[in-house]
Amino acid sequence: MTYLDYNATTPIDIRVAEAMLPFLYGHYGNPSSTHSLGISAKAAVEQARAQVASLIHCLPDEIIFTSGGSESNNMVLKGVAHTFRNKGKHIITSVVEHPAILKPCKYLESLGYEVSYVPVDSYGMVDPSDIESLITDKTILVTIMHSNNEVGTLHPIEEIGRICKRRGVLFHTDASQSVGKVPIDVVALGVDFLTIAGHKLYAPKGVGALYMREGLHIEPLIHGAGHERGRRAGTENILLEVGLGKACEVAMTAIQSNALIELTAYFYNRLKESFGETIHLNGHPERKLPNTLNISFLGYDGHKILDSLCDVAASTGSACHAGTTNISPVLAAMGVSDRVGRGAVRFSLGRHTTREEIDTVVVSLQKVIKEYQHETWNNH
Ligand SMILES: Cc1ncc(COP(=O)(O)O)c(C=O)c1O
């Protein structure tokens, strides 16, 4: 099996697993306890917090551990909506966000909030001036994803950050797909909140973090005891938090390598050589994640291609809403036609992908497309 679905999830890095092991067995103390087992558990959590902070260039206290990207997104949207409801009830987001943003927005709309959804261009990118023109004195939050999970397009976050700062509006970015793949500096981005999802960067599933700028206070999503400085209740999940911390430390060096960019470019060139004008790249050709190739095989059905490629794990649309033959809402928002969109396959490469695997996948694709053509020809 060749795994080319790293945007859906990643395997746990061996270094991450090794860092977690002691916390699976011996080190079971509660970080709130004052005895030695508690003290060492607390030290492990704080080390992990510092490792996460270091990757995105913030202070350790600005990191709140959560159960993942969905929780971090929900915490920001619902927390800001509740806390600033007397200032206004207007939120701005984009049409290409993950359901972990769109669904809480729908929920807030049901409570009387107004949500504006900015469109995207044919590359799947928002235009900052569209956002600026929607801001009113009732706007309490702008939330725009750092990169798109399906096509990999990177949004102009720094520019939007500058606009939000100038207009005095809080700004959140869902960086679930970006952290660990591209360098992130929360100060340079000008964000007040940033979402991290552990399982997209070789940490286990079920752990994530929220960056919340120092000095900000929002209503917590989970009320209880004073964990995470009163921002998210519940005894710390030390095992997973240590895993996320280590994954962030490993990512610091992995990000500096160009290997993945080169491998993805190699894959794209091999596909161009093999299929020429019968493929189309969805998403921005340069301003995109280094590992993501969303390719439409024109005139074919992406689901059928993947079913025939039984030794390759990839996605059509996105893994979160696979199993439907409608074109994905992201491709539709980009103005991709039904014919082009139906042929879309998302390949997302990762740390363990090799050139040999890419060569094998290209040969398998050539075979599948040939069989497909043969079948179509015979049916006519
Ligand atoms: C852009 C984006 N946001 C949020 C999420 C949800 O993250 P999690 O699975 O950690 O809840 C995902 C996962 O696919 C994602 O791609």
Task: Describe this entry's structure for a reader.
The chain has a seven-stranded mixed β-sheet, with helices on both faces. A three-stranded antiparallel β-sheet has the order 9-10-12. The protein has 380 residues and is of the alpha/beta class. It is globular and about 75 Å long. The longest helix is centred in the C-terminal third of the chain and has 25 residues, at 355-379. α2 runs parallel beside α9 (238-254), α3 (69-83) runs parallel beside α4 and α10 (259-275) runs parallel beside α14 (355-379). The chain has helices at 14-24, 36-56, 69-83, 99-110, 128-134, 157-167, 186-189, 227-230, 238-254, 259-275, 302-308, 329-333, 338-342, 355-379; strands at residues 2-3, 63-66, 90-94, 114-118, 139-143, 170-174, 193-197, 208-212, 279-282, 292-297, 312-313, 344-348. β6, α7 (186-189) and β7 (193-197) form a beta-alpha-beta unit. Bound molecules: pyridoxal-5'-phosphate. Pyridoxal-5'-phosphate binds at residues 68-70, 98, 100, 145, 149, 174, 176-177, 197, 199, 208, 320.
